[in-house]
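User: Please fill in residues for this 115-position structure.
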C-alpha cells in the first residue's frame, strides 16, 4: 500500500474539488473533497463513506458516543466534476500561456481553476 521509499505521484484530485464516486456502495454520489492523503492515495469526500466511530466515555461525556464520520476513499474511485457542464471528466496536465503546468479537462480542453 504505502512504501516510504516510493515516490508519490501527482494526484488528479485536490482539496475543494467536487467529485463523483465511480464504484462501490456510494457509486454515482457526488461531494466535495475535504482532505487528501497523497501517501496512501486516499481522500475524504463530504457525505461519502460514512462510518460509525465509537468514542470512549470521558469526564465531559461519561456515557460515550457513536459518531458518524466520513472515512477515506481511494482516489482511483473518484472522478472530477467539471464546473461548466456538471459532468464527470478525466483530467490531464499541460502548460498554460504562462508556462505553468495546469490541470485541464480532457472532455472540453478547458483549464481547471485550482481550489
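Assistant: Residues filled in for all 115 positions:
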Amino acid at each position: 500500500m504505502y512504501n516510504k521509499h516510493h515516490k508519490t505521484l501527482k494526484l488528479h484530485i485536490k482539496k475543494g474539488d467536487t467529485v463523483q464516486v465511480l464504484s462501490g456502495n456510494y457509486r454515482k454520489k457526488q461531494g466535495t473533497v475535504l482532505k487528501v492523503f497523497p501517501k496512501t492515495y486516499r481522500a475524504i469526500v463530504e457525505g461519502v463513506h460514512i462510518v460509525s466511530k465509537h468514542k470512549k466515555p470521558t469526564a465531559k461525556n461519561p456515557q460515550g458516543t457513536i459518531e458518524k464520520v466520513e472515512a477515506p476513499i481511494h482516489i482511483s474511485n473518484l472522478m472530477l466534476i467539471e464546473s461548466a457542464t456538471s459532468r464527470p471528466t478525466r483530467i490531464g496536465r499541460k502548460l498554460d500561456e504562462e508556462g505553468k503546468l495546469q490541470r485541464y479537462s480532457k472532455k472540453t480542453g478547458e483549464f481547471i481553476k485550482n481550489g
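For context: Residues 66 and 113 are 38 Å apart (CA to CA).
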